[in-house]
Amino acid sequence: xxxxxxxxxxxxxxxxxxxxxxxxxxxxxxxxxxxxxxxxxxxxxxxxxxxxxxxxxxxxxxxxxxxxxxxxxxxxxxxxxxxxxxxxxxxxxxxxxxxxxxxxxxxxxxxxxxxxxxxxxxxxxxxxxxxxxxxxxxxxxxxxxxxxxxxxxxxxxx
Length: 158
Hints:
By secondary structure, this protein is an all-alpha fold. It has one domain (5-157). It contains 5 helices and no strands. It has helices at 5-37, 40-54, 59-79, 86-116, 123-157. Helix 4 packs antiparallel against helix 5. The model has no long low-confidence stretch (mean pLDDT 96).
């Protein structure tokens, strides 16, 4: 099954990006909608807690490991476009790293920081929450789709 180290890395990327797609889908599909239905302060506190817990969970090694493995696969593929599956590997790696990792870095992460600093019982906190629900969820949709499509491309490349 793992004929080369690259094959093993492709499997890791395929499975890792699929798992990440599932996490992001859950948030996009129903978690954020459920949080929007409850009292603002409760939604803020719940998401603040999730954001705190997730940083010390198995999510982070998977998040970082898959991101950098995907970027590495894209570089390897770009270095030899005649390699079998190179276009698929490059596409999957670029899509995952750009659509998932960079979206997190530039959009979801800063919104998480802003929410972390928001007082759940203030008018400003309510404004932050309203913005968060719309923008964070929008960028989470991007992460969901990028992760899912990348997973499929990685599997096809294998």
